[in-house]
Structures are given as C-alpha cells and as structure tokens.
Amino acid sequence: MEKKRIVIITGANSGIGKAAATLFASNGFTVIMACRNLEKSEKVQKKICSETNNPNVKLMELDMSSFTSIQAFSKEFQACYSHLDILIHNAAYFNHGEKYRLSPDNVELTFATNVIGPYLLTDLLLGHLKNADDPRILHASSNIVKQFFDPMWKINFDQIIGEIDNTKGFSVYKMYAHSKMALVMLTFRLAEEWKGEGIKVNALQINGAKMSKETLQKVTTGWRAIARIQNLFFPPPEKMASIYYDMCTSEEFRNISGKLINDKKEVMNPGHLKPNAVMQVKQLTGNAYYPPYADQKENQEQVWYLCQRALKEL
Ligand SMILES: NC(=O)c1ccc[n+]([C@@H]2O[C@H](COP(=O)([O-])OP(=O)(O)OC[C@H]3O[C@@H](n4cnc5c(N)ncnc54)[C@H](OP(=O)(O)O)[C@@H]3O)[C@@H](O)[C@H]2O)c1
Question: Can 176 be counted among the known catalytic residues?
C-alpha cells in the first residue's frame, strides 16, 4: 500500500507558510501545521480543511525558538506518525527594529528561531525522515544574504549565545541577514553530512512575498514604512508556496541537494571573491550568484559548532 505523504510546515498560519499548507492540502498531503499560536492558527487550519476538502490538515504546537517546545513537538509527531516525507522550515523571526532578545534557552531570538531551532527539529526527526521514500527538507532563506557580497559583512557570532553585555550595534535587520546566511551554510553542511543517505536538503532564496498587515505590525514604525513600500512590489505568497511545492515534490529536484535555489528554480552558483565591475553588477542585481562567504569552511564550521552546542543542551 502506498504510504500517505506527510509534510510539516513551520509557521503555517500566515503568509507563504499558509499558502504552502493550502497547496499541499489541495494535493492530498497530510499537512502538519507547526505553529506557536494555536488559537489564531486553528481558524486558519479549519479554513484550509474546508477549502481543500482535506480533513488531514493537522495543527500541532511548536515554538521554534524553544528547545523544550521542539522536543515536545517531535515526541508528539513521532508518536502519531511512522515517517516524514517533507520538512519545510518556513517560520522566521524578523521583527526589525526590536531590541536584543534572548530565547528561553539563552540564544539570541533571531538565531534561535531561524537557525538553531530548525537544526534541532531536523535532527530530532531524522529517523522519521529516513523512513520516507524520498525525504526532502527546505530552508526558507532570503535575498538579504546578498549583503554578504560586501566583504565587511560577517556573521556576528559574539552576539548569538547568551550574555547580553555586548549588544552594541545590534540590529534585528542585521541579525536576520546573518541568520539567513547561516541557514544557507547549514544547508551546504547538512547535505555533506548526509551524502549517500538519501535525504535532500536545499535552501530557497526568497526575494519577497506580500506580507500581511499582521506581519507588518510586528516591525517597528520606521521599518514598517519601508516594508509597506516594498510590499507594493512583492508577488503574492502563493508564488513562493508553489516553488516550495516544486522543490519538495518534483522529479526535477529529486537528486538535488545542498543547493541554494533562486525564484526561477535555478541552482545558484558562488560569486567571485574579487569580481570585476560587470560581475559585481551581475552579483548584486541578479539572482544567479550567492556570496562566496557561504562557501568558506571556517564560517560553516562556526555555524555547525553552534548547532552542535545546542544539541548537547537537549
Ligand atoms: N515575505 C517576504 O518578503 C520574505 C522575503 C524573504 C524571505 N522570507 C522568508 O519567508 C518565510 C515566510 O515569511 P512570510 O513572509 O510568509 O512571513 P509571515 O507571514 O510573518 O510568517 C512567518 C511565520 O513564522 C511564524 N513564527 C515566527 N516565530 C515563530 C516561532 N518562534 N515559532 C513558530 N512559528 C514562528 C509566525 O507565527 P506567528 O503568527 O505566531 O507570529 C508566522 O506564522 C520566512 O522564513 C521569511 O524569512 C520572506
């Protein structure tokens, strides 16, 4: 008998996550909406169930910034299901303008939610992913990583773990960019780890998707004005959701792993360390290249070290 296909989507109650949950549900998947706010998410879940005529859209509580919540979610999922086909790390913290905040486990909140949380959840669900026929993982990254074409940009590893005595110059905007770069490096590193094991992991570089009023409210006033203007030019979230779907289900992506993909579903290539003027323009304005920073082993190792350190705390 064919196994029922199961997808977990984090942050599936709004924006791209919600659009993706609807698309997977329309295509007969069992969809696990992994969300932190159950009251708000329940309304969305019911709507998706009725619109898609799919009763297998389930809501489960998950706060991506909390190790305890990630562990509890994984336990509950493992108790209910025998395998996991697709894991989409869509949830993210990007409340630009907010002050420095720590997660319950003493990790800077942006990094906790956008990098460490996804790594821990993947690690805990690895056994179930291995039970699937064609397991795939997607990390939602962002074109904000282009900032790293500037050689002055480096991940500020000093502000990630715990002590708040060094928050000078901290900005959620920068940390968000750092976290999305770290996610790309984690993608590359995980693919290396799993070579030959059949689990595919890729990252999607999202250039923009129309944000809801609620999402805009989460950023502070000055940032909100900028985001509102950007929003005028962004495509609807359904566009990105359809790329999530293709990357996680299509034959085209069956053997692709450890890559950063652009919004034309093309594999992106590393940019040049010392580009000439033409190349520089191509790198900054196009979507064919990612910053060479992402390929530097010492940077990847630092991200890996942070993830391993968190794993030991479980
Ligand atoms: N929209 C864009 O222009 C754009 C551009 C580049 C990249 N992206 C990326 O695309 C992804 C989706 O973004 P979106 O635009 O669809 O934003 P969104 O509508 O604000 O969705 C973000 C989701 O993440 C959830 N979330 C945040 N912190 C969480 C936590 N600790 N635990 C569990 N869930 C949490 C939110 O839940 P609550 O409702 O509970 O807050 C919400 O469901 C994100 O990874 C984002 O970085 C978006």
Answer: yes
